[in-house]
Amino acid sequence: DAKTTQPNSMESNEEEPVHLPCNHSTISGTDYIHWYRQLPSQGPEYVIHGLTSNVNNRMASLAIAEDRKSSTLILHRATLRDAAVYYCILRHGAGSYQLTFGKGTKLSVIP
Amino acid sequence: SQTIHQWPATLVQPVGSPLSLECTVEGTSNPNLYWYRQAAGRGLQLLFYSVGIGQISSEVPQNLSASRPQDRQFILSSKKLLLSDSGFYLCAWSVGAADNEKLFFGSGTQLSVL
C-alpha cells in the first residue's frame, strides 16, 4: 500500500496562510489524495480530496504536484480553530474500503 | 441529513470485564461502517469495517470483535478487556465504493481500562 510522509508538527501565526506538505512517492495512478483533520477530543473530519488537478473548497485548497508524488494542503488564513492534527491519506484502489491514517501533522496556530 | 451516534462518550472498565460500544447511523441506507482506535499520542488504527449486514472484515488480530446486526448499526465488543485496549474508539460511515468516498466520524468513546 502506498504510504504518506508528513512533518510531525508545524506552527503558524493567526491570519497567515499555512502550507501543510505531504509526500507520497509510491502513489499509484488510481489513488486519490484525501485530507482529514482532527480537533482535540473529536473524530476526524473531511477537509478535501483530489486526484490530479488542484482543488478548492470552502475549507482549504489542495495543490497536487504534476508527478503526484507530493501534495500540499493550503489554509489561506489560519484561525485558532484550525489548530488540529492534519492527516494526508491515499485512498486505496478500487474494491477497497479502508482509509489508513498515519500520525499526521499537528498544526499549532499562534495568536 | 445524515448523522452518526456513538455512545458512551467515556467509559472506565476494569481489566477482564466485557465491552460493548454501539454506533448507529441515520439518514442513509447501506452505509459502509468502520471502527477505528486511537491510542494516546498515536494515529488512527482501522480495526473493523463492514460493507453490509453480517459482513465484517478485521484488519488487526486482537481481543475485540465487531458485529452488524442491522443495516445502520455497528457494535464493537470484547469478552475480556486488556489494559492495552485503552484508547479513543471512533465509529465512521461512508457511502459508495468509489475511490473518492468520504468518511464521516462519530464523536468517539474514550475507553480507560484499569
Summarize the structure.
Chain A has 111 residues and is mainly beta. Helix content of chain A is 0%, strand content 45%. In chain B, the strands form 2 sheets. In chain B, strands 2, 4, 5, 6, 9, 10 and 11 form a 7-stranded mixed β-sheet that branches. A 4-stranded antiparallel β-sheet of chain B has the order 1-3-8-7, with no helix packed on it.
Features of this protein?
heterodimer; A: 111 residues; mainly beta; 4-stranded antiparallel β-sheet; 45% strand; globular; B: 114 residues; 7-stranded mixed β-sheet; 11 strands
Question: What is the H-and-E element order of chain B?
Answer: EEEEEEEEEEE
Share of residues in strands of chain A: over 45%
Largest interface: A-B, 27 and 26 residues
Number of helices, where a helix is a run of at least 4 consecutive DSSP H or I residues of chain B = 0
What is the tally of beta strands of chain A? 9
- The ordered H/E elements of chain A are EEEEEEEEE
Q: Ranges of chain A with pLDDT <50 over ≥5 residues? A: none
Oligomer: heterodimer
Give the overall shape of chain B, derived from the CA principal axes: globular
